[in-house]
Structures are given as C-alpha cells and as structure tokens.
C-alpha cells in the first residue's frame, strides 16, 4: 500500500503531492518543509529534509513509516512554539542514488527546499558540500552559542567538510560494529559468552562449536557477517587498515591488511563453514537468528529495538562489540544522518531552529522509543534512562563511539560510485568467481579507476 502526503501550497505556489511506497522502504525519503510568515499573511516558502534506508538493507516499512511520523510530530510541536513557521513533510520514492541525483537536480533548478537530509558516508557529505547544496553552520552556531559538546566528537567530525560543520546529527551510530548472540545456544554448547577482550580467534572458535550438523546438513550456523560497503570499512579497520587512504586518493583493498580481512571472511564461508552461503540463507540474517538457525550475526544498532518483538521471549539474547583485530584495533565507523541547511534558503535562522528541534535530545530519544532506529548522535540520547530501561543493549553499542571514526571519502567526490564498484567486484570472492588475491586486485584496480577520475 502506498501512502501520500500533501505539501501545503505556499503563496503563489501550486500544490504538490509526494508519494512514498511502504513496500519499498529502502527507497523512502522524508522531507519536512516549513515556511516563514509575517503578520497575518500565509507562509511563503518551504524546506526539505529526507530519510530512507541504507543501500543493501532489507525493507523495514515500520521503521521508516515511524521516521516520517517523527518528523511530522517534531514539525507539529515546533509550529506550536514557532507559530509563524509552518512545517510540512515531503517524501520521494527513490533509492539512495536516485535520491541524491534528485537533490542535485532540484538544487540546480532552484526547487530545493530549506533543510536537506542525507547520510554522510560513501562520500555524500563532501559531494553535497562541494556542490554548495548545504551551507556551513559554524557562524550561526557561534552566534547562537550552541553547545556542540552535546554530541559525540566522532559524530561532529563526521559532519565536517574542509573543517566546516555542515549541519547537525538527526541520527547517528557507530556502524555495524557489533553482533547479536543467542545466550541460550551459547549455554547449551558450553561456550563462554563474548567479552571485551575477545579476539577474532575467539569468535571463530565459538562459531565452530555453535555450528551444528544433522544428517550431513548444517541446521545451525555459528556466525553471519555483513557484505556491503560500510561493514567492509569496519572489518578493514578491525584489521588495522581502511578501504581508501585518508587523503581519499588511493584504493587500499590490495594491501596485506585488507587481503587478510577478505581471507578471514572467505574462511568463515568456505574453510571453517561456520557461515551460510547466500543460497543457504532462509529469509534475512535476522530471520536466521530469530529462528535459531544462526547463533551470532553482525548487525547495526538500528536492529536492537526491533529484536525484542521479533524474538518475543523465545530465547535469551544480547549484543557484543566485534572482537579485537590482529593489530589490536577495533572496528567502528561514525555513520551520521545529517540535517543540513540549504545554501539557497531565504530563511536560514528559521531553518536552524527547526534543525535543532530535529536533532535535539527528545527527538533522539523518541525515535528509539517509537521503534524508528538508533538514538540521536548524543551521549544523553544513548544513555537516557528511558532507553536503557527498555533497550539496555544500546549502552554496549555506545562504547564504540570512543573509537569510531568518519569514513575516508574520495577526494574527487565520487563516493557512491566507488563504493558501488567496490561492492560489485568483491562479490566475485564470495561466489568463488575469483580467489581472494584476484578479487582484491581486481577490486582495487576498479576502485582506483574511479578515484582517478576528475571531480564530479
């Protein structure tokens, strides 16, 4: 079923209608639009802010419907305190690449609104900033004496371009830096629970003991990893490296550390056979965990709140951070969903007031209590007693913010392109169309070709 939201017409503007498909929630965007009025006149201008799923994520209709509703509710509350400003939510039925292309097109034609949502990884932050779609907010923060220490330092760093802050964090988490595990299956197999000193060998040894065969068929797997760009970044960091150099100019896939990372993932699938191949996965990774066909699986913090309902007290579970890697490093990535102010807005101060509402403490807590994903990018959200009481696992995940770092975006602003090329080429390893060495070399060369292109 599709849902529709009308955009309230402003002075002299035609009504618009935005369509959002609940069935294709990985393509849902959310875009609040507000207007500034004066005297008794009707509002005269709108703004846009968006929300949708990560590329490669399974559909999550309830989560993204709730995110849209949260924006609407924050907008309604904001209007009560700021009666001269009207907030409207727009939505666009596009996937990530289409969404960003649409924002670029709307900016070029002058149709873009006042506040724009985007995630900051995969080079989106520098691209939007380079194109001047967002404007820096350092001056307005200084004038407002706004306290940035309310946010995690890594979250603030993730929203900077050329040392300028481009917005505030509506939603932030340390990436797919942890995993869920079935405490009952651990106890049944006599395996000690994970702890903060766990190393990769400890995970593999546990996964082997938790992998169960019956009649020559695996009926329970010990482990499941994620195979997409951000998890690859995190695994590379576990092995003490990264997929792209810090200056954004060199691919680092065909390096000893990343090849070791790829070999470890390959061994889980084919050498130790503690992880199912894609054709052996019934439903999603979460489905495998909920039906107790997988004892552990890597995931992001957005899954935590929904897991309670999915498991429904059938077994005991909790979360742990990924183990320490060979170099002594842990893996995490500061992944932020930013609310930025358009460089073309005529209502910059009003936009800033609404951004603060969207990115404040209460909104960051409410989204978790309503089942709409991880908390806002602030310690007072992640440690709020209301959250810890209902989902204490967030206190475990929050520890990763200490070592989480922003991604390394391409210097030529081609982040979505290089991440797509990286994912496509690495897939050959997991389907045995290439060895680890071949896949690393091919992927590195393909990514480097993108990195060597001129800026978009």
Describe this structure in words.
With 456 residues, this protein is of the alpha+beta class. The protein folds into two domains: 2-175 and 334-402, D-Maltodextrin-Binding Protein, domain 2; 178-331 and 410-451, Periplasmic binding protein-like II (D-Maltodextrin-Binding Protein, domain 2, 3-Layer(aba) Sandwich). 39% of the residues lie in helices and 15% in strands. The chain has helices spanning 61-81, 96-109, 124-130, 138-144, 153-158, 183-189, 200-210, 229-238, 256-271, 285-290, 304-311, 348-358, 361-369, 379-382, 385-390, 393-397, 415-430, 436-451, and strands at 2-7, 16-21, 31-36, 85-90, 115-119, 160-161, 164-165, 168-173, 178-182, 212-214, 217-220, 296-299, 317-321, 335-341. The strands form six sheets. It has a three-stranded antiparallel β-sheet with strand order 5-14-8. Strands 12-9-13 form a three-stranded antiparallel β-sheet. The chain has a two-stranded antiparallel ribbon with strand order 1-2. Strand 1 (2-7) and strand 2 (16-21) form a beta hairpin. Helix 17 runs antiparallel to helix 18 (436-451).
């Amino acid at each position: 079923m599709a849902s529709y939201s009308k955009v309230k017409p402003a002075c002299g503007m035609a009504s618009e209608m935005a369509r959002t498909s609940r069935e294709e929630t990985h393509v849902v965007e959310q875009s609040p639009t507000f207007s500034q009025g004066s005297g008794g006149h009707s509002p005269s201008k709108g703004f846009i802010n968006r929300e949708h799923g990560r590329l490669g994520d399974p559909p999550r209709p309830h989560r993204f419907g709730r995110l849209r509703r949260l924006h609407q509710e924050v907008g309604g509350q904001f209007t009560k305190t700021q009666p001269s400003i009207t907030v409207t939510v727009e939505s666009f039925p596009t996937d990530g690449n289409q969404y960003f292309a649409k924002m670029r097109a709307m900016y070029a034609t002058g149709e873009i609104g006042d506040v724009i949502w985007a995630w900051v990884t995969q080079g989106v932050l520098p691209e939007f900033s380079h194109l001047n779609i967002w404007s820096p907010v350092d001056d307005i923060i200084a004038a407002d004496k706004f306290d940035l220490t309310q946010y995690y330092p890594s979250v603030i760093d993730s929203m900077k371009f050329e040392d300028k802050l481009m917005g505030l964090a509506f939603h932030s988490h340390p990436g797919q830096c942890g995993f869920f595990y079935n405490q009952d299956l651990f106890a049944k197999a006599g395996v000690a629970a994970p702890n903060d000193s766990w190393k990769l060998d400890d995970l593999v040894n546990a996964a082997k003991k938790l992998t169960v065969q019956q009649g020559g068929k695996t009926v329970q797997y010990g482990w499941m990893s994620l195979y997409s760009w951000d998890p690859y970044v995190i695994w590379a960091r576990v092995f003490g490296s990264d997929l792209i150099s810090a200056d954004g100019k060199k691919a680092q896939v065909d390096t000893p550390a990343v090849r070791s990372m790829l070999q470890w993932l390959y061994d889980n699938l084919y050498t130790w056979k503690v992880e199912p191949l894609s054709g052996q996965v019934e439903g999603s990774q979460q489905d495998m965990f909920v039906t107790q066909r997988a004892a552990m699986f890597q995931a992001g913090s957005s899954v935590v709140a929904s897991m309670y309902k999915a498991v429904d007290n059938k077994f005991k579970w909790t979360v742990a951070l990924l183990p320490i890697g060979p170099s002594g490093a842990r893996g995490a990535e500061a992944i932020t969903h930013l609310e930025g102010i358009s460089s073309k807005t005529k209502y910059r101060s009003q936009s800033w007031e609404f951004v603060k509402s969207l990115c404040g403490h209460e909104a960051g807590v409410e989204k978790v209590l309503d089942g709409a994903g991880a908390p806002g990018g602030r310690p007072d959200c992640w440690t709020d007693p209301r959250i810890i009481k209902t989902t204490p696992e967030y206190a475990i995940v929050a520890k990763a913010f200490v070592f989480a770092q922003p991604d390394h975006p391409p210097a030529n602003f081609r982040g979505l392109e290089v991440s797509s090329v990286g994912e496509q080429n690495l897939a050959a390893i997991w389907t045995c169309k290439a060895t680890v060495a071949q896949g690393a070399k091919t992927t590195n060369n393909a990514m480097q070709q993108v990195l060597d292109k001129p800026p978009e």
